[in-house]
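User: Sequence recovery, please. Input:
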């Protein structure tokens, strides 16, 4: 059976990994936003359905990334709260 200190250490490591992963997701959000900017610039010159589809899918991907970052951040906060509860 793990000691409270071991559990706290594992929770802290999990929370740190959550922070690192959230940072990676935020970088992916920024990259997706850059992609969207380029696609929108191209779309200004053409109304082709393929470009509009690319924009729609990129926007959907960005939204899912935002949701993932928010959910993961909540998980990290919950782990840190449990550390506090353990004392």
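Assistant: Recovered sequence (87 residues):
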């Amino acid at each position: 059976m793990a000691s409270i200190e071991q559990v706290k250490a594992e929770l802290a490591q999990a929370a740190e990994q959550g922070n690192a992963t959230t940072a990676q997701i935020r970088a992916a959000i920024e990259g997706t936003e850059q992609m969207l900017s380029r696609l929108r610039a191209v779309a200004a010159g053409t109304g082709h359905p393929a470009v509009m589809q690319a924009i729609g899918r990129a926007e959907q991907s960005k939204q899912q990334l935002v949701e993932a970052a928010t959910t993961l951040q909540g998980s990290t906060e919950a782990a840190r709260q449990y550390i506090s509860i353990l004392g």
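The radius of gyration is 19 Å.
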